[in-house]
Design brief:
The complex is a heterodimer of chains A (436) and B (455). Chain A contains 10 helices and 21 strands. Chain A has 2 domains: 88 residues, PDZ domain (Pdz3 Domain, Roll); 250 residues, Alpha-Beta Complex (2-enoyl-CoA Hydratase, Chain A, domain 1), CATH 3.90.226. In chain A, the strands form 4 sheets. In chain A, strands 1, 2, 14, 15, 16, 19 and 20 form a 7-stranded antiparallel beta sheet that branches. In chain A, strands 4, 5, 6, 7, 8 and 9 form a 6-stranded antiparallel beta sheet that branches. The longest helix of chain A is centred in the N-terminal third of the chain and has 16 residues. By secondary structure, chain B is α+β, with helices and mostly antiparallel strands. Chain B folds into 2 domains: 88 residues, PDZ domain (Pdz3 Domain); 266 residues, Alpha-Beta Complex (2-enoyl-CoA Hydratase, Chain A, domain 1). Chain B has 13 helices and 22 strands. In chain B, the strands form 4 sheets. In chain B, strands 1, 2, 14, 15, 16, 19 and 20 form a 7-stranded antiparallel beta sheet that branches. In chain B, strands 11-12-13-17-18-21-22 form a 7-stranded mixed beta sheet, with helices on both faces. In chain B, strands 4, 5, 6, 7, 8 and 9 form a 6-stranded antiparallel beta sheet that branches. The radius of gyration of chain B is 23 Å and the shape is globular. About 12% of the residues of chain B have low confidence. The chains are: A alpha+beta (436), B alpha+beta (455). Chains A and B meet through helix 1, helix 2, strand 19 and strand 20 of A and helix 2, helix 3, strand 19 and strand 20 of B.
Chain lengths: 436, 455
């Protein structure tokens, strides 16, 4: 990838999801006079400054102008003002003061689902599977998860006392010093004897590292080998291009992951997986939803195109464009602009089309919801795909949860498990290559 | 310079904007040379250059800059906008009050085009399009993502061509209505005798408004064969128009004296507009009807008549657009024109109606008090609308006075506000507001009610 620019496959709908940030682009010479209408713009700006009914801030006017121009290009291009830009760079590092644990609610208590090895809780002897029953001596019972977590979080450097219950042991009070901890980009657990990882976004620069480590842990927990893996990308709106490439690379032995193309075909860049595959024979199901966008679509698309995974769920969002975040000289914020389209290894653009799952599965009952989804091609000013061939979900192919299926259970996940545990996995893989 | 008070949120929708070339020289002299401006322009040029060189597809420079100009002006207030050369030419043709289209004033809401009011005698009105209707599609294509100007340009066209609008109403299935475009001649003044009471409706303040009023009064005099027993001036749903027309209309009711004053940024360029001496309707009782969609020039007329004690204002609180836009041609119109909010206006008693509107002397509702919300959008609801200076002052006062709130007369009035609703079973189409205006003039209570308000 180009060493100069930070490519971002950011959230499908908002700029607030920008996480990627890398290097400044040297400013190019400006040949402003060649803009015929720039003079009109300057004239209007001057008139507004002198004549408007109220005093005006030039900076605000320019921001309004930039937003007006960029919003018209496409839904993903925008101007990022200096203060927002600074905040976004901070958010990209996702640091907060905490104990380095991931928690869920179980039986009215906080259960540790994962303790980061470098976190202070881990150092104090707290492990996955432990429960927290009280914070600062106050019982957790009756509180919801957010309230309970609120008490645990705080300023780095301040201690917090938690009452920890390890099953079959007496509860004990442990004082832990809160620290700046990096939030993990993934969650993992064993699901019915299979490995299950949830990737919420691709915004974190440590995503691939976190995933590798989670796979190691899963492998240990499953007795040395993961019999099958579910990668859950539902609702994952994307993030960093580099992370989608390196995650794909974990499961592919070399070869193309995707290519990106700018305005001219000559700008094409190809991204390849590293040689050598982490877990070559492990079957993989990728779960996707209409909210899976951008970098998530790259991962699902490359594993599908390369015949490495079966994709299950609903047709994805269809954001096939790459935005560059270009810092503007003089601390003037940044320009976030669509500069490229990307293509899956088979050369398809997913812009406006998305990734079609090998097995269509609906999370919800057949209630007409199939037809009411916001997708990339329903956004105003969205880029068009040159490929206009028919690409709709075929209603009859969609699996719906049976009427008796419990509402609080995950039908798509259940189906993914079923596929991995039966010959259907191989059938669906074979069907992929039949199409090619 | 000629000032315009454009219709509510309308961008070139009805073609009712005056223009002039008088002010260009003056503006050029005042050009400031702030270094900040140049720095910001550099930033702008830098971004534009990068878009041109690196955006994923080729971009047309002109469109890019025009979108930027619109973005800048929209960030100011809902009434400032750029008029491109094509639209400017069209605008010049339309100042006379004639244009080719379907005849409706529109605004934008939630990305859709919303009808403010169909113009009397237009294809839109004839086809049954109503105030408050949403236009979701034009010729089968969604309006989402279009600016108001773009949408309006698509709706407009050449005489004889048809356009199909998809109309959505609350609680109704969307319906397609096909309209044939034609020259909409804006008969903006209509008159008739209603139950023996002379009635004049002004639907818009274009150049035909004042002459139309004079003609209407003459015609009504002939109809009643002598002295007018009273006049109902209906300014409901009138979204405004030209400032000079509002002065001339007010002159028919006032014998000299101030109608309105305008003030620019520093208050320095304050200007007072006065009525011509002598009045056309001397001694004739006047009831002015206003509603939530009476805006701008309508509010000037209603405010002047109210403040000068010349008549009774009846109906509901008006829209609240207290700003004046100037239409400033760029390079003699070759680069189009800038419609910019340059002034606020004040009624003769010195109040600004920006964001607050004119409260009628007698609150009368068209709709029953059925708990349903019949209120319409007002200026204060528009995105980025400018604040009323009085509102800002009130905030400051409360700080300095240590939180002690002074019960202003306005608040007191609000507490006592009694709204006359139509009786149960009243048919809305029978127009309760108009019935009450007729009843007031016929009852002979008019003088007493007016005198009460003076005290």
């Amino acid at each position: 990838m180009s060493p100069k620019q930070g490519f971002v496959l950011a959230g499908a709908l908002t700029a607030s999801l920008i996480a990627g940030w890398s290097y400044a682009v040297p400013p190019k010479p400006i040949d402003a006079p060649s803009f015929e209408k720039l003079q009109i713009f300057a004239d209007i700006l001057t008139i507004v400054e002198t004549k408007y009914v109220e005093p005006v801030e030039t900076q605000a006017l320019i921001e309004g102008a930039l937003n007006g121009a960029l919003a018209k290009l496409d839904p993903h291009s925008s101007y990022v003002p200096p203060t927002t830009f600074t905040e976004q760079r901070k958010a990209a590092r996702r640091e907060y003061g905490g104990l380095g644990i991931e928690v869920i609610m179980e039986g009215g208590l906080i259960k540790i689902s994962f303790a980061l090895e470098e976190g202070p809780a881990f150092a104090a002897g707290i492990r996955s599977g432990d429960f927290i029953t009280a914070v600062e001596g106050e019982s957790i019972l009756g509180r919801d998860l957010d309230e309970a977590v609120e008490g645990i979080r705080g300023l780095a450097g301040d201690p917090v006392t938690v009452t920890v219950l390890t099953p079959d042991q007496e509860p004990r009070d442990i004082s832990v010093m809160r620290a700046q901890v990096r939030g993990r980009a993934i969650r993992h657990r064993v699901e019915q004897g299979l490995g299950y990882v949830v990737l919420e976004s691709f915004n974190n620069t440590e995503l691939t590292t976190d995933l590798e480590r989670a796979l190691e842990i899963l492998s240990e927990e499953l007795g040395g080998e993961i019999p099958g893996l579910i990668i859950d990308l539902r609702g994952n709106r994307g993030g960093l291009l580099t992370q989608s490439v390196s995650v794909s690379g974990l499961f592919l032995d070399g070869g193309e992951v995707l290519s990106v193309r700018g305005r001219k075909d000559i700008d094409t860049e190809r991204y390849h997986a590293e040689a050598g595959e982490l877990l070559p024979d492990m079957p993989i199901v990728v779960l996707v939803s209409p909210g899976s966008a951008s970098a998530a679509e790259i991962l699902a698309g490359s594993l599908q195109d390369r015949g490495r995974a079966v994709v299950v769920g609903r047709r994805t969002f269809g954001k096939g464009s790459v935005q560059s975040v270009i810092p503007l000289p003089g601390n003037k914020g940044a320009l976030r602009m669509t500069t490229q389209r990307y293509y899956t290894p088979s050369g398809k653009s997913i812009q406006g089309r998305g990734i079609m799952p090998d097995q269509l599965v609906s999370a919800l009952d057949d209630n007409g919801e199939l037809r009411r989804r916001i997708r990339e091609d329903s956004l105003p000013n969205a880029l068009r795909n040159t490929d206009t061939s028919d690409y709709e979900e075929i209603y009859d192919d969609v699996m719906f949860p049976p009427e008796t299926f419990p509402i609080d259970e995950d039908f798509q996940l259940r189906t993914a498990v079923d596929i991995l545990k039966t010959s259907r996995y191989q059938d669906l893989l074979n069907a992929q290559s039949d199409l090619d | 310079m000629k000032y315009v008070l454009p219709v509510v949120g309308t961008v070139a929708a009805v073609g009712l904007f005056a223009f002039s070339t008088a002010n260009q020289a003056a503006l050029a002299v005042e050009k400031p040379s702030y270094s900040d401006t140049f720095e910001q322009l550099d930033l702008f040029a830098d971004v534009m250059a990068r878009v041109r060189s690196d955006y994923v597809v080729e971009v047309e420079d002109g469109e890019l800059i025009e979108d930027a100009i619109n973005g800048m002006l929209q960030s100011l207030d809902p009434h400032s906008s750029y008029v491109n050369p094509d639209d400017f030419l069209r605008l010049q043709e339309q100042t006379s009050g004639r244009y080719v289209g379907v005849g409706m004033e529109v605004t934008q809401e939630d990305g859709y085009v919303k009808v403010v009011s169909p113009i009397d005698g237009s294809p839109a009105k004839e086809a049954g399009i109503k105030s408050g209707d949403y236009i979701t599609e034009i010729d089968g294509k969604t309006v989402l993502g279009l600016s108001l100007t773009e949408a309006v340009n698509i709706i407009r066209g050449e005489t004889g061509e048809s356009v199909t609008l998809t109309i959505a109403r609350i609680d109704e299935e969307p319906q397609d209505i096909t309209l044939i475009r034609r020259a909409v001649d804006r008969a903006v003044v209509t008159h008739e005798i209603k139950d023996g009471v002379p009635y004049i409706r002004i639907s818009q303040f274009n150049e035909k408004a004042a002459p139309g009023l004079v003609e209407a009064i003459a015609q009504l005099r002939r109809d009643v064969d002598g002295k007018l027993p009273g006049v109902i001036l209906d300014l409901r749903t009138n979204p405004g128009g030209l400032l000079d027309q509002s002065i001339k209309i007010s002159s028919a009711f006032l014998d000299g004296g101030e109608v309105v004053s305008t003030r620019g940024r520093e208050g320095a360029d304050q200007q007072s507009y006065t009525a011509e001496p002598g009045q056309l309707l001397k001694g004739v009782p006047v009831v002015v009807l206003i509603d939530e969609a009476s805006a701008s020039a309508s509010e000037i007329v209603a405010g002047a008549i109210q403040d000068r004690g010349r008549g009774l204002v009846m109906g509901m609180t008006s829209f609240g657009k207290g700003s004046v836009q100037s239409l400033i041609p760029l390079r003699g119109g070759r680069d189009g024109a800038l419609r910019l909010t340059t002034q606020r206006y004040y009624t003769p008693s010195g109040r600004s109606i920006q964001g607050t509107g004119i409260d009628p002397d007698l609150f009368v509702s068209s709709y029953p008090n059925d708990g349903e919300d019949h209120t319409r959008m007002s200026e204060a609801d528009l995105p980025n609308s400018i604040l009323n200076e009085d509102a800002e002052e009130i905030v400051d006062d409360s700080v300095t006075e240590d939180g002690v709130t002074d019960d202003t007369t306005e608040d007191a009035a609000e507490d006592e506000m009694i709204i006359d609703y139509p009786p149960e079973g009243f048919v809305i189409q029978d127009d309760h507001q108009l019935q009450q205006a007729i009843a007031l003039i016929k009852s002979g209570d008019y003088d007493q009610r007016l005198a009460e308000l003076q005290n």
